Amino acid sequence: MPLTEDYLKSVSESQLKDRAYIPYELERHERASIEEIRRCIKLKKYKDKETLKESLDFIETLSNKMNIAIQNQKKDNKTTWELEADLNDLKKVFDQLNNMLTTFETNEVDASVRKANYKRR
Which among 50, 52, 90 is positioned nearest to 70, based on CA atoms? Predict the structure, then answer.
């Protein structure tokens, strides 16, 4: 049903924007993916760099999407507390994955150095 001219004159533009405003939230599948990543971290299921990198890429893409949403909400003078809290939680997961990746890479370097030293003997 279209808005009548009388109605449009009776409300301000900002009131119309507020009524049309839908805050950004993480979608159900995004939350489920984050929880699956957390579960894999907790159960130490990451056994290779490629899987870790896929999870890191997912989290990085999602955090970029969230940062854009936060900036847009701030530009429209909307509250972003829940989204910022979600982003902070996501950063913690990212940091855990990144530390695991660093450990994998360090272990690979150590193994290749040991292998090179063994071959020299």
Answer: 90
